Amino acid sequence: MAFLGELSVALLCLLIVYFLCVRDRKRLPPLATESMFTTIAAMTTSDAPWFVLSLAQKYPGRVFRMRVPQWRPWVVIADGPTARAVLRARAADKPSLYSNFDGMTAGWASFFTSPDGPRWAHARKGVSHAFTSSLIRDKLDALQSCAALGLRLDVLSASGEEFDAAQLMIELMIDVLGETVLAGFDFGMLRGGGDSSGMGLRFLEAVEPALIEYALKRTNNPLRKLMAFAIPEARAAGRAAVELMRIANEVMEEFRSRREAAASASEREELDATIIGKLVSNPNYAHEQERAADVVTFLIAGHDTTGFTLAWTLYELAAHPEIADRLAADLRSNNEVAPERSEYLAAVINESMRLWPVAAMGSLRVLAEDLALSDGAVIPAGAICSIPFLPVHRTAPVQDAGTFKPERWLKNVEPSLKENFMPFSTGRRNCVGQTLALAELKRFLALIVTGYKLELVRPPKSDYFLTLKPADGRLRVSRRPPMSH
Ligand code: HEM
Fold first, then answer.
1. Does residue 424 line the site of ligand 1, with CB under 6 A?
2. Is 464 within the bounds of a domain?
3. Considering its fold, how many domains does the chain have in total?
4. Residue 237 belongs to some domain of the structure
5. Which residues cross the membrane (predicted)?
6. Backbone angles phi, psi at 376, to 5 degrees
7. pLDDT in tens, 22-43
8. What is the pLDDT of residues 182-202, one digit of tens each?
9. Which CATH number fits the domain that encloses residue 42?
10. ipTM confidence
11. How many other CB atoms sit within 10 Å of the CB of residue 152?
């Protein structure tokens, strides 16, 4: 009898546990069937965005979980409206995974990697004003890099030599960052000359080993940090990070002496209004090396993103000469002096960034509160939300999503197209440099397309490593004949 009593108490307990834990358990988004091994193998290759796209196409809701070595759920969100809800949620932040990147700045947190809080807020607020479009436009009007690019293209056109557009655009962007973000610093890439000539090459040589070690290998294998002293590549990456910080410190020193030597108060005011001017005078930095870390961040975040976007657009225009001709005619007929006003140019840029979002794997966020989805599933608080922009941009409801069609951005733009388009991310941690990036894209595309015809010699391959690169492609340019009236 006593035994039966104990049994019924045990059954009652089990029932209570069932009702508390099982019945009320949240329904999570579906779990992709790919094993953890397959997932890791695919996610560590240069095809990772295409792997995630293939999974997103299988799930109509475009929200699913992936098996990764994380104790928290890893939820992939390829649905634009849900992505926006997560990125704009007040209770969402960057996960601590971002701190691996601090190795690139010799351990100093940058405002890109810092979670929301005073360190991030003062740095972002400090520079935001310097990125406003009118200030950027004034800077671009005076760019010497435009002339340098024209000269290089004239040489290539005269010789008929083929070239790698990604390489050329990266070199251009380093010079442009010097001229804009750093208020006239000469990195000596296309422009050559200046006292600091060679600094651009030093930057490019240091950035690659540092990115590979800290943004890739240490993120995939946290144990590597402990063994770094025994791994030659890890030691070389450490030296590269020190070099990046040295470059940032030299750049700031050069800026300060230029400001000191300014001939007039108005010249000094002009320097103070620039991005580096704002950064150097921001009193909220706890340490000079935090400032240096933010200079490194601007150089890293601003060079290949814009450079590869330009290059992808040039390859698309070369593959679609009718679109390039229409764009050239549009720019030449009424907008040549103000490319920022050409609707067709804006459509070409949007379409290129939709198909080839350089931040292809997008943003990561952690939610502090559950997020209920329209199908009844829940993304639980604490889950890591991965929002990969390439699948967001390239899955239904976007029509004919794999085709380059700038026209889709011109008239009666589908609301779902806009909802599923976020190359610069969204919410408070979106791209602070997007005004500059868009102004550069417009300015340089207008210059190239109105002056030159592009011939596609070899289409590029997509190669993902933090950014989506058009690898190994080749173009040829020739002077575009003047417009016949
Ligand atoms: C086509 C060009 C560009 C694209 C597609 C792009 C894209 C992005 C994206 C998607 C993010 C959010 C990353 C995340 O959530 O993890 C971001 C952040 C950022 N970008 Fe850009 N970017 C571009 C150009 C630039 C430029 C030119 C600069 C500066 C010179 C810049 C500086 C930054 C910084 C500092 C952040 C971090 C902002 C913060 O955490 O508050 N970017 N960018």
1. yes
2. yes
3. 1
4. yes
5. none
6. 95, -15
7. 445 789 999 999 999 999 999 9
8. 999 999 898 765 555 689 999
9. 1.10.630.10
10. 0.99
11. 17
